[in-house]
Records
---
Amino acid sequence: MFYLAIKEILTIPTYNDPGTCRAGRVVIDHERCNGCGDCALICPGACLYVAGVGKDRKAYMIDKAVPDCMSCNDCAAICKRGAIRAEHGYDFGGFYKALHRAEMVPPRNF
Amino acid sequence: MTSTSVEEKKRGRKAGSGEMYTWHEGMDWNPVEKVILERRSVRKYRDEQVPEKLVRRVLEAGRFAPSAGNSQPWRFVVVRDRDMLDEMEKYVRLRCRVLKFMLDWESSPLGRLSWLLAQAYIRLMPNKLHPIPFGAIRLIADGKLKLFHGAPTVIFILEDVRGVSKPQVDIGICGQNMVLAAHSLGLGTCWVGFVELFKFGTKWKKKLGIGWPYRLIEAIALGYPVGRPDGMVARELHEIDWWEGGRKRTVF
Ligand SMILES: Cc1cc2nc3c(=O)[nH]c(=O)nc-3n(C[C@H](O)[C@H](O)[C@H](O)COP(=O)(O)O)c2cc1C
């Protein structure tokens, strides 16, 4: 049973090439964000920062082709206002292609 | 139903309202599930030491972890000295800088050579140089990611390599026992895999007594979190093969 083609197994993605790599990505609801900066403080990938003054102080994701976001959602967990969440998991493709995954959902109490 | 203590209410962390040791469909999370599901890695700690007795209690949860053949192939080293932890942090950061210099083709003055080195090493160590830790090496080198995140107590877990079967699995189970106990007791934790870099040099191996048959596997940072980092989040569904009644189904 082969889950990856030979070509995929032999392809190591170029870590900084958005053409081959999909890093995690967060979406920030600026209506809800009050720029407290908790998310930026704890982001293990240093992907978040806050900018602006007063009411316009908001969190943003850094502008990088392949950010170090691993979709851990620790930003979502610490956010008091539910203003931030990871949109999708990471998939670096090739040898590291994500297998047998589907969309991100919270715990389900069956 | 579990009663909620005033202290828990004050901290805004109610125990799960589901009953223990029973299940009915759609019931609320019980307190154990709640701790499991709400545990998040904590990467910012208050500058306040954890009482010794509390750490001892957390270690007890580790001592009673299941292990293959009951071989209990672990040894704990607890470090609670700020100076020592800071020094370790510096030590690992320096090693990350060297790795970044050698392997990070985006920034390395070695240019093309670093690209070739990285390509070779990634193939030799596809897990350790997976894009995520590769990025983390850069972040630690640049001081953007901490090693222990300012935690006042760190538990190092050593593996007795003579353990039964697959001792590293037992280390993982033992560690997670402690992590979950810690969160249920109001602490925050973070696993720290980057202590792996202690092996590039003898200083900490000597000082922490890491020698055959012991091998350093992981560390767990322990302390009181800043803010409220714990909480349920969304994660990817994983496809599950489910064999029953002579045929296979796929569930998520
Ligand atoms: C074995 C292991 C090693 C880890 N090492 C690190 C580390 O060195 N630094 C860090 O910030 N997080 C580390 N983590 C934490 C993971 O990044 C974290 O568990 C993951 O992103 C999921 O997020 P959560 O723990 O908040 O659910 C480690 C986790 C595990 C299980």
---
Amino acid sequence: MGLDFSVVPSYADALLLGVIWTIAITVASAVLSFFGGILFAVIALYAPLVLRLPFRFFAWLFMGTPLLLQLFLIYFGLVELGIDLPAFVAGVIGLGLHFAVYNSELIQTAILAVDKGQMEAARTLGLSRGQALVRVVIPQAVRDVIPPIGNNMIALLKDSALVSVIGVSELTLSAQLAIGRTYRPFEFYAVAAVLYYVINLGMEAVLRRIERRTQLSR
Amino acid sequence: MTDTPFVQIRHAQKAYGELEVLKDISLTVERGEIVAIIGPSGSGKSTLLRAINDLDPLTSGEVILEGVQVNKQLPHRQYEKHINEMRQQIGMVFQHFNLFPHLTVRENVTMAPKLLKGLSSADADKLAEEQLAHVGMSERIDYYPSQLSGGQKQRVAIARALAMKPKLMLFDEATSALDPELVEEVNLVMKKLAEEHMTMIIVTHEMDFAASVCDRVIFMDGGVVVEEGPPSVVFQNPTQERTQNFLRKHLAQYAEGAK
Ligand SMILES: Nc1ncnc2c1ncn2[C@@H]1O[C@H](COP(=O)(O)OP(=O)(O)O)[C@@H](O)[C@H]1O
Ligand SMILES: [Mg+2]
């Protein structure tokens, strides 16, 4: 039997909805992973030991175990503790925290690499250490890791397919549902792949624009 | 209280492990006075200057500004509050400018006054315009530091420090990192401050500048003040052999470089 893409257009609406959900979950998780990454970096570097130690454990948990397992734990596991999250929210938390830990590693290194003279100049003007971190050091550290954070965000987009298993009807799940009706796995997976690729191109364009904007500020 | 010196350093000692960098230095600076600190590299000039605003804390000794001890022993929180207040009164200019690269010239100047003195954006803008006009940098107000020459960066750094309306300005080799042709524009700004009677302590290796602008020259070597006095005395009739040797070498180098 040959390939037949003629069945695809009748699922265009469902696939488009899948694309929208994929973008929504990627953007929401990316935002969480960005600000979470900054917060985690500050905790890892500057928090007192009582905060730092549990955080170390938490970071290890998110880096050392499969993301799929983490999603199951958040979506199915937490129900036992009386926390019944909607699938989308569970997905954003799982993806967001997972990538926040990776972003935090990048940001920590970048914070330590900011020229010492920057902190000194800020302190000399009378800023407290905290003010100097927030106003001077962290913005430069974040600026310096925009490209690798961008790579993490591309990885996040691809890993967002995992939330299909907890029932978020994003692009991969939409394709699977269409396949269930039509028995045309190649066609729909191929179309989904192309759609991921297009979203990816869009993300890269946005990232390049952000990078260009920070060009002068180095 | 008129006989209290403006800045007083008493028995300043600083050691890094075994290495004694400052060995019991005492000196005073009067209000409006302009003091040059000269001496060979590694003699402790930067360490002394940076002890004045407690950026490099002394091992022992006191720094007193207008009767208030800068390096007071206080519990951590109280010390932080105290030192931040003191530092607002002490401007500092670094060899490598240390402008904030992620902020425009305007933002570099306005950040601290807005944050620490609660200036409104409009007032802060006015302040930035004033201070930048003062150092001749009005035209670059919305540039980023990366778009400026070294001399321009240093002038902005001076404006940034002045925007906090400090009582005292510290300069640590403000022109050493500059290409020779950019030194003069920064010296001119410092001369202007001198004419306005800003109290300044200037670490420099430009003997000409020290001689023409400063009221007093302090020669340091090996962590001690070897000799101090008006430039006419220290440069023309130094009494200490170490000073004579330093000046001979330095002035000879200078004369050679000028050819
Ligand atoms: N953080 C530090 N740790 C160890 N030694 C230092 C440190 N900072 C400065 N020194 C030493 O202190 C001495 C004086 O340095 P410095 O004050 O920078 O001299 P100058 O400014 O006169 O060139 C030098 O021998 C230098 O190597
Ligand atoms: Mg020095």
